[in-house]
Design goal:
With 461 residues, the protein is an alpha/beta fold. It folds into two domains: 3-202, 3-Layer(aba) Sandwich (Rossmann fold), CATH 3.40.50; 216-456, Rossmann fold. It has helices at 43-50, 89-98, 104-117, 133-147, 163-178, 190-193, 216-219, 273-280, 322-329, 333-336, 341-347, 363-375, 393-409, 444-447, and strands spanning 3-13, 19-28, 32-36, 62-69, 73-76, 151-155, 182-186, 199-202, 220-221, 233-244, 247-258, 262-267, 288-293, 307-309, 338-339, 381-385, 412-417, 428-433, 436-442, 452-456. The strands form five sheets. A seven-stranded mixed beta sheet has the order 14-16-17-12-18-19-20, sandwiched between helices. The longest helix has 17 residues, at 393-409. The protein starts with a strand and ends in a 5-residue tail after the last strand. 48% of the residues are buried.
């Protein structure tokens, strides 16, 4: 069988002295492969090397060893908005169709299939700037599969996708490999959307160095609020209406957040999760409704306003070394007690990155840094928009234990996610569907049983 690519002692050396590799493996045509390794192990750099590109920020790389790649090759960036250039969804798909390597008679049929599979047909005339992050991810993937190269390099293709998007991604991979193309994927959730016979390429034999246990005593300084204050109302909203991009994304939403609980905000791509997070954090003004904050639930905090981790880590980083980013985010926290930056850095395995500018880190490392920046603000409510993107299983498990420790200490977390991976820690689940909000109370946090204690339409729990 013909090989789609091969690497023989392939190594990349950067001007700062860092070296990645050497790697030696190959992938045959019509096959799917998955790059496995913790964040920072070189998955993105390897994909860029196969595409004959240099990852931004590192400077030109000096390569050694042998590399052979089948042409044509196409790459999905880990930041898909960088490769979407058309003003409208239809403009981007039309450009991809015009540049497709498929026979002319098959292009339109493939476009119609991709539109339906990724639920883009209803977005045909929508401006790209009005799409959610997950919808942009679907658009970038649809364009890539429509171009149909011989080798597809997919960097974090499912990072923002809901369950339906992951199902469509799996079907698209199977469809293109049947035509003889090869697909190489770097994504922590690769098992969810790759064929069962996909080949696994381990870049590093060791797992992540993140510790297995989280010590609450190590993470916090000062007396916690487990004994008093938990259950006090922090924030409440009623009849909330949110409009973005000329459309209503939430109607008549009502809910309540109390101290010492975790709320999982789930829903499909484009359902309004980010809009609700931004509204609660005070960055987006609702069109109608009432949103009130309680002074009783936040009186002991130096910073009563919610802390926020945006979906895009780059928006939080200034280019300074990580230790300065964390110092800026956590200023004042030591004087009042709470989460300690040094302990959190150790638990999130950031100690070896403290002197590195945040913009030069891998996406998984950026994710851990910006999560730490949000937590060390020691705010009564921390709003996290998809905090587990780009992270691998062991990293997610450790962060889950940190979340539970933070809740037990008395802080509250609002965690938005397109999939229900945060449910094992949630006291409430807010599910958004077609502009409506459903609230469920759960017993996940205490016994991990998936038992739902109450549910109903939008309304205060």
């Amino acid at each position: 069988m013909e090989r789609a690519f091969f690497l023989d002692s392939f190594e990349m050396q950067y001007p700062d002295g860092s070296t990645l590799g050497p790697w030696s493996f190959s992938l045959d045509t019509g096959r799917t492969g998955a790059l496995c390794g913790p964040s920072g192990s070189g998955k993105t750099s390897l994909l860029y090397g196969l595409a004959s590109l240099d990852p931004g920020g590192f400077g030109p790389a000096k390569v050694s060893g042998r590399r052979g790649v089948t042409a044509p090759v196409d790459l999905l960036f880990e930041k898909p908005f960088l490769q979407i250039l058309g003003p409208l969804v239809k403009d981007e798909l039309s450009a991809a169709e015009a540049g497709s390597w498929l026979p002319p008679h098959a292009r339109r049929r493939e476009r119609e299939w991709l539109l339906e599979a990724f639920c883009l047909d209803s977005l045909w005339d929508r401006p790209v700037r009005e799409l959610s992050e997950g919808e942009r991810q679907k658009l970038a993937l649809a364009c890539l599969f429509l171009r149909s190269p011989a080798l597809l390099l997919l960097d974090q293709p499912a990072s923002s996708l809901d369950r339906g998007g992951q199902k469509a991604l799996k079907a698209a991979i199977e469809r293109i490999t049947r035509r003889g193309a090869a697909t190489l994927i770097a994504d922590p959730d690769w098992k969810r959307f790759t064929p069962s016979e996909a080949e696994r390429f381990s870049l590093f034999p060791k797992a992540s160095n993140l510790p297995r246990e989280v010590s609450v005593d190590r993470l916090f300084e000062g007396s916690g609020s487990r004994e008093r204050g938990c259950g006090d109302r922090i924030l409440e909203f009623e009849g909330l209406e949110i409009r973005r991009g000329g459309r209503t994304v939430l109607r008549e939403g009502s809910g309540r957040i109390s101290r010492g609980e975790i709320i999982a905000l789930v829903g499909d791509n484009g359902s309004g999760k980010t809009s609700l997070v931004l509204t609660i954090a005070g960055l987006l003004k609702p069109a109608n409704g009432r949103l009130t904050k309680s002074s009783s639930g936040v009186r002991r905090f130096r910073r009563p306003r919610p802390a926020l981790m945006l979906q895009e880590s780059l928006w939080h980083l200034s280019g300074k070394p990580v230790k300065r980013e964390l110092a800026w985010a956590g200023r004042g926290a030591r004087r009042q007690g709470g989460i300690q930056p040094a302990a959190l850095s150790s638990l999130l395995d950031l100690e070896g990155l403290l002197e590195t500018p945040g913009l030069l880190l891998s996406r998984g490392e950026m994710q851990r840094v910006t999560l730490a920046m949000a937590l060390v603000r020691n705010a009564p409510l921390v709003c996290l928009d998809e905090p587990l993107r780009f992270l691998w299983d062991q990293e997610r498990r450790t962060i889950g234990r940190i979340f539970q420790a933070v809740r037990d200490w008395g802080l509250s977390l609002l965690i938005a996610s397109p999939v229900e991976e945060v449910l094992p820690w949630a006291d409430q689940v807010w599910r958004l569907t077609r502009g409506r909000m459903e609230i469920c109370r759960t017993t996940y946090a205490s016994d991990n049983s998936a038992t739902q204690s109450s549910s109903g339409p939008s309304g205060a729990p």
